[in-house]
Amino acid sequence: MKLKNTFFIAFALMMGTYGISQEIENFESSVADCIGAVEVTNFDESNIQLPGNFGRVRDLQAIMPTVYETNTVWLRLEPTLNGEFGFEISSEDNINFNYFLFKDLTGNMCGDLSNGDVFPIRQDSSLSMKTKGINADTKGESKVLKNIVKTKYNDVFYLMIHSSSKLQGNFKVKYFRTGEVVELEENIQDYKSNPRYKTVRISVRDKETGAPVDANVNVNGLRIDEKLFQGSDFLFDATPSRYVEVIVNAKGYFLEIKGLKFNATKDSEIVVEIEKLAPGKLLKMEGLRFEQDSKNFLPVSKIALKRLLDFMVVNNDIKIEIQGHVNAPGYGAKRRVRKLSAERAKMAYIYLVENGISKNRVSYVGFGNTKMIYPHPTSPEQEDANRRVEIMIIE
């Protein structure tokens, strides 16, 4: 999808005076690792870019010690299908590749793989540039799947695409589904474990239509921090914290991070509405936080950074400019202020590039305090609104 006009995603940057700085390379969950797999929500086709590295761990080490991983990307596939499933993978840049398809049998696919307890159900381990996959021949109006995978509506698969080249190559994955596609009204995941607690239900909805949207979701504040969930509706224990931060990422939608309060003494529902990508929209997102007067991220920023990375992977035909802003009323357009804003924008840029996003798709700039939303802020909330990084989508 090419967007002809420009539009923005604004990231509100909450300043912190406490916490320990963390080097950017230590942030977790690369898309090159099973645990960082990008969820596929569009079963027409995926346009994927390899990151140029194998991630943090060599996922196949336990089951295929002779396979030397060089450059990989992982996809999580949930076809919601009673029937037969297939795909074709083609290189857009003429680089060699192979693939390995796994079925999640326990709900702990990446852990099973690390322990050597799961093996590919389909694979083409030959490294070549030719199109590969569980493909379909079109004959008249019917499609004949070769080497098909039979699937039930709740089956989950993980697809690893690997190249021996370190190039950040682009790939197209075209999907085929035959049979009954089950369009679930709600994909409810129940994670309640303590009957003494009330229930917090988190629902992800399309802002325009109100329809459920399957998404990658992180939830902080309910004693389940740093875990990734997939679905549209989730049930959790209402812990005494009374505050929750929800991070939502779905293909074709803006990244959304929302902090909300809830009443732990009764059942609660939190609805997170997400907007489809479209020209001219300006959205704010909490989650990227820096040390006071510093370019260094606070550790709590790692989930927001990972979601931004996923956003760039699943929407790999967009280019962005990262724009830094600071809250500095009365300072004038001083060089130090502009430098700090540029350094913060650059840190987000470095994170994306080091995790496989092409430099051709990302640029950065610092505006200092020249574009404050509130030139004379009168509250901490207005100061936080000034202190931000904006992501402008330019193509």
TrEMBL record:
Pfam family name, one: OmpA
Domain OmpA-like, first and last residues per copy: 277-395
Alphabetical list of CDD domains matching this protein: OmpA_C-like
GO cellular-component term (any): membrane
InterPro entries recorded: Bact_OuterMem_StrucFunc (IPR050330), OmpA-like (IPR006665), OmpA-like_sf (IPR036737)
Keywords for this protein: Membrane
Claim: Membrane is one of the keywords in the record: yes
PANTHER family: LIPOPROTEIN YIAD-RELATED (PTHR30329:SF21), STATOR ELEMENT OF FLAGELLAR MOTOR COMPLEX (PTHR30329)
Name assigned to this protein: OmpA-like domain-containing protein
